Amino acid sequence: MRLRTSAAAVALAGAVTAGFAAGPASAATTSATSAQAAAPWCLGHRLNAKGAVDKLWVWNSCKSNQSYKVRLANVPDLACRQLKPGGADYFTWGWPGRFDGLVTC
């Protein structure tokens, strides 16, 4: 899987350099990505990225329920979750996944 990802990245870089990435497909990807806003400041998290397995704790200090998902790089994002005020979640994932932030959903 890592080799395919690298080949796709090289192909995309070539398309961007050649000026072909400005078509409708890239516009759709951009709008889908920007539709997810960053999670509010009251949705806290702590990441332990030491070792082969990353660990993430998420807690809700907001006064209302919060829907969010964990955005990851190199692997699929985690499913949308909802936390009640005072609630907490715990997640783990392995390499090559990398934490890219919390977004609303």
Can you describe this structure in just a few lines?
This is Nitrous oxide reductase. The chain is an alpha+beta fold and 105 residues long. 27% of the residues lie in helices and 37% in strands.
Structure report:
It is a single chain. The chain is of the alpha+beta class. It has 2 domains: 1-35, no CATH class; 37-105, Alpha-amylase inhibitor (Immunoglobulin-like), CATH 2.60.40. Helices cover 27% and strands 37% of the residues. It has helices at residues 2-18, 24-34; strands spanning 43-48, 53-60, 66-73, 81-83, 88-94, 98-104. The strands form 2 sheets. The chain has a 3-stranded antiparallel sheet, with no helix packed on it. A hairpin with a 7-residue loop joins strand 3 and strand 4. The two termini are 28 Å apart.
The secondary-structure element order is HHEEEEEE
Q: Which band does the percent of strand residues land in?
A: 35-45%
End-to-end separation in angstroms reads 28 Å
Any idea of the CATH topology of the largest domain? Immunoglobulin-like
CATH architecture of the largest domain: Sandwich
Helix content: 25-40%
Total count of strands: 6
